[in-house]
Amino acid sequence: MTQVRVATVRQLSPVAASLALGLALLLTRGAFAQPPTAQKPTIVLVHGAFADASSWNAVVDRLQDQGFTVSAPANPLRGLASDAPYISSVLSTISGPIVLVGHSYGGAVITNAATGNPNVKALVYVAAYIPDQGQTLAQLAPASGGSELVPPGVPGVPPTLNVTPCPPASCPAGLEVSIVPGDFQQIFAEDLRPERTAIMAVEQRPLSVSALTDQSGPPAWKTIRSFALVANQDHAIGTANELAMAQHAGATTVRVDGSHVVMISHPDAVVDLIQTAVAATN
Question: Rounded CA gap, 120 and 117, in Å?
């Protein structure tokens, strides 16, 4: 039988032995190991007024298919003074990077909730309010910018908002607003089927009047990179109002031909913008 003799380091020449030892040290230290894969951020979706977390269903489905961990907490809709701390407490339970997404009133909430949280790497505003410090929602959605949300008592203009009492213990102003059902599709969801919006109008969650008058605090978008989707047929906040806020905040902006609930009617466009935000955090 032929025997194969394996040379040891001692049997090599001094130069070869030195190279062999160097190679062994490099391998031991992991010099040729692949760089670690960047951790995927958790995507947190915050809904707005007159809606609930189910408004994100199509977006959640697509993000989960792409391997993202997704959270869609219930937004209490009681006003920035309480809603922003609540969402902030939810964020504090998440380890690792976060991309924080807000729709409509949810945009104002995330603007305040993300401030001071180093895990939030990007903010994504979907047909949303993007307030600066000291601003209120009532100031940010004038009729001149396309908003058709009108409370009772405006001379010569039919109201599109109902104002009803709510328990002061859970509703600081003692009043809340909802969209008049007959105006719901036109204002909120123009590009959805009438039979669907008829159900949404009945199931809508009212917004405390406090949410319209609470002053926004130091905005997270001043220190966190921001992205905005502006809906071209938004009659709730108003398309021109959305665009002005996005420009003021310096957000990377895309425009989509959709209604205020663009995450329902155009979920792929929303997911694309979230992916853009994720890529910017890597």
Answer: 6
Burial class (CB in 10 A: 0-12, 13-18, 19+), 252: middle
Checking DSSP bridges between strand 226-231 and strand 252-256, what pairing results, if any? parallel
DSSP readout, 114-149?
TTT-TTEEEEEEEEE--PPTT--HHHH--GGGT---
Instruction: Kindly state whether residue 23 falls inside one of the protein's structural domains.
Output: no
* Residue 19 placed within a domain: no
**What is the number of other CB atoms lying within 10 angstroms of the CB of residue 246?**
24
For residue 247, is it within any domain?
yes
In a domain, 138, yes or no: yes
The structure tokens listed for 224 are 């966190």
The rounded distance, in Å, linking the Cα atoms of 149 and 126 is: 18
Q: What is the pTM of this model?
A: 0.87
CATH number of the domain that 90 lies in?
3.40.50.1820
**Exposure on the CB side of residue 217, measured as CA atoms within 13 A:** 16
Q: How many folded domains does the chain comprise?
A: 1
Decide if 175 contacts 163 (C-beta within 8 A): yes
Show the domain range for 89.
42-281
Report pLDDT digits (tens) over 213-266: 999 999 999 999 999 999 999 999 999 999 999 999 999 999 999 999 999 999
